Amino acid sequence: MSGHHTTQTALRDDDGARRERTGAWRMALPVAILAAGIIAWALIVRINAIPPYVLPGPALVAQTLIQDWPILWSSLLTTLLTTLEGFAAAAIGGIALALLFSQSRWLEVALLPYAIVLQVTPVIAIAPLLLIYLPQQTAVVVCAWIVAFFPVLSNTTLGLNSADRNLVGLFKLYGASRWQMLRYLKLPAALPYTLGGLRIAGGLSLIGAVVAEIAAGSAGTGSGLAYRIAESGYRLNIPRMFAALLLLSFAGVVIYTVLALVSHRLLRRWHESALRKES
Amino acid sequence: MTSVSETSARTPKDVAIRLRGITKAYDDRGTVLGPIDLEVQRGEFISMLGPSGCGKSTALRIIAGLTAPTSGMVDLKRRTSAESAARSIGFVFQEPTLMPWATVRDNVRLPLTLAGLPQGDANRHAQVALTRVGLAEFGAAFPRELSGGMKMRVSLARALVTDPDVLLLDEPFAALDEITRFRLNNDLVALWRNLGKTVVFVTHSVFESVYLSERVVVMTGRPGRVHTEIRIDAAQRDEAFRTSAEYVAYCRRASLALAEASGAQADA
Known about the structure:
heterodimer; A: mainly alpha; 0% strand; B: alpha/beta; three-stranded antiparallel sheet; 9 strands; 40% helix; globular
C-alpha cells in the first residue's frame, strides 16, 4: 500500500513540473507578442514620421500616462465605481429575476419578452433617452445594468433548471419543501452557471458604463475615463486618448481576472470546470 | 391473497408492500407496465428480474411514490407521523445520484437535514450509516474523490440513514465492475440480515437476483407483468452458495423463465 502511494506521489510531482512549465509558457507567449507589437508600433511611428496627433508612439503614450496620472486615476475610479454599481445591480437583479421565474411560470411568461427586448436593443440608442429622464449618475448605472443583467438572468435560469432529475425525485421522496429544494439543490446546482453569467456581466457592465459616459459626454459634467477619451478626441490630445484607452482595457482585464478567480475559488472542490485535468 | 400463502411462510398480516392492479401508461408509448399484483412480506428480500424496458424500474418508482400509477393501488405501511412517513423508504438509484458540491457526510445526512433534525444528531446518524457501508473515514471527502463502488456505498448509506422499513434499489450495481459488484452484493446481504429491512431489488442480472433474494419475480417484456415467481431457499449467501449446484440450478430456472417471459412478449 505504501509503495503504491510513493509511485503516485512521484507521478504527481512529475505532473506538477510539467504543469509549471506549461504555465510559464502560457505567461511568456502573450507577453512576447505584446513586446513585438509595441516594438512594431514604435518603429512604424518613427520610420514614417507619423505626427503624434495622428498616432503617438508607445513612449509618448507611456509618458502621458505618467504625466496625466492624477486626472486619469480619478477618472478611472469614477468609471470603476459606475461599473461596480451596474455590475452589482445586474447580479442582484439577474439572480432575483431568475429565482422569481423559477418559482412562477406565469411571471416568466409575462416578463421574459421584456428582458429580451432590453437585451437586444442597442444600449447606445437607449442611453441618450435615459440621460434625459434620469439624473446623470443614475442613468449611467442603469445603462451598465441593462447591458449586464441578461447573461446573469439567462445563465441562472438555465442553472436552476439543470439540477439532476433523480436528485429532484429524491428530495421529493424525503418531503423537501420548496425552500429546501431551492437552498440545498437548485441554488448549488445553479452556482457554476451563475458564476459564468457574472463573468460575462463584469465585462459588459464596463461597456455599459463607457457607452453611457460617452453619450453623456456632450453634457460635459462627466469625469469618467470614457469622458476623458471623448474630450481628448475633441481637443486632438491623442496621446491622452490612448493612455485612457489603455487604462480602460486594463480595468476590463482586472475585472475579468478577479471574477474568474472568485469563480475558481468557489468551485474548485467539486465542479469539473475548476478541476485540474488528471493524468 | 392466496398468492401470499404460496410464496411465504410468514403470516399474511406481515405484508409490507401490496400492489393491486398497478398499470402505467404514457400518451406517447402506450402501456409500459401491468397490470401487476404483488405482495412483499415484512423483512423479505425480493428481486424483480426482467428484460430492459419491461417497466420494472417504473414499478419501483411507483412503490416509492416518485411516479403516479395510471391505475391500481399501492399499499405501503408508512410510519404514522407525517414527518417520519417520508423517511420510512430508502431509495437507491442506478446512478449514485450524489450532490457533487457536498461532502460525503452532507450527502448521507440529507434526508435528516430535510426532516429538520439538528445538525449534531444528523451527523451522528450519518456516521453510523457510513460505518455500516465501510466508509467511516470518508465523511469529509467529496464524491468526485471516490471510486464508482464507493459512491454507490455512499448512496446506500444515504438510503439507510433514516433507518427505513423498506429499501428500494433500482439496478444499483449495474454500472460497476464484477468484483466490486460481488463485494457490494455481500455487503447488501449482510445489511439485510443484520437490519431486517424489507428489500425490493430491481435488476436485469439473473445471477445477482438469485444470489441476493429470497424470491425472484420474473417479469415479461413490455408491458411488464409478473411471469413467474421463484423461491430461492438458501441458508447462507456466500461464496459456497455462489459455487454450489443449487445456485446453478436456480440460475438455470430463472434464465429459462426470463427467456420464456421475453419470448412471450415477442409473440404478442
